[in-house]
Amino acid sequence: MSEPLVVAPPGGWTTTDLDELPVSNYRYELTDGALIVTPSPSSLHQVLALRLGSALVDLAPEPYVVTGAVEIRFTRQLTRIPDLLVVRAEDPSRHWFSPAEVIVAVEIESPGSHIEDRVTKPALYAQFGIPHYWRIELSPLRVVTYRLGQGDTYSMGAPQERLKVDAPFPVGLTLTDLLPRWAR
Questions:
Q1: In a structure prediction context, what are the per-residue pLDDT tens digits for the chain, which is 184 residues long?
Q2: Residue 104 CB contacts under 8 Å (≥ 6 apart), including other chains
């Protein structure tokens, strides 16, 4: 019987363990100390994140900062890496943020992430008080926006072909305009 490639530390993985992993093309996230490893997203996924991030940089007023694929550390054994983040942080150059610093988490669905992006992440982000969550579906191309309501639950908008919100700042973007020529 072969040895596992990576052995879990006693008591499970922590953010300290993540900090010691070598830089790679994989995303490492934690769920209750279990290590979740996902491959790099597709080219379309990454181009859409890049173009949406660029558009949001132009729209976001101070003190908001738009960043991509940076870790949210909920606890020592619970993390997520959204495709894009809008944060309000004293030091936005860090490689992770606390949930209290995150204003918007944006996820672009990948073929293997539907349950995570549609069920797990909205519940997790709401539980930790992240005011806004935007989920982009690639096929068909549309966005679903979530806004934190009373308690720790989101109100969810209907799927739209246009990202149109008033908060935390006005955004009005047609998703197909963000696609590269080869994907239209």
A1: 555 567 889 999 999 999 998 888 888 999 999 999 888 889 999 999 999 999 999 999 999 999 999 999 999 999 999 999 999 988 999 999 999 999 999 999 988 889 999 999 999 999 999 999 999 999 999 999 999 998 889 999 999 999 999 999 999 999 999 999 999 8
A2: 84, 85, 86, 130, 131, 132, 133, 134, 168
Q: Tell me the C-alpha distance between 85 and 59, whole Å.
A: 14
Residue 125 falls within a domain, yes or no? yes
- Per-residue tokens: 143: 């966005």
Give the DSSP letter of residue 77.
T
Query: Does 16 map to a domain?
Result: no
Q: Which two tokens stand for residue 170?
A: 């006005």
Query: 69 lies in a domain?
Result: yes
Number of domains in the chain: 1
Whether this model's pTM surpasses 0.85: yes
What residues make up the domain containing 59?
Answer: 42-183
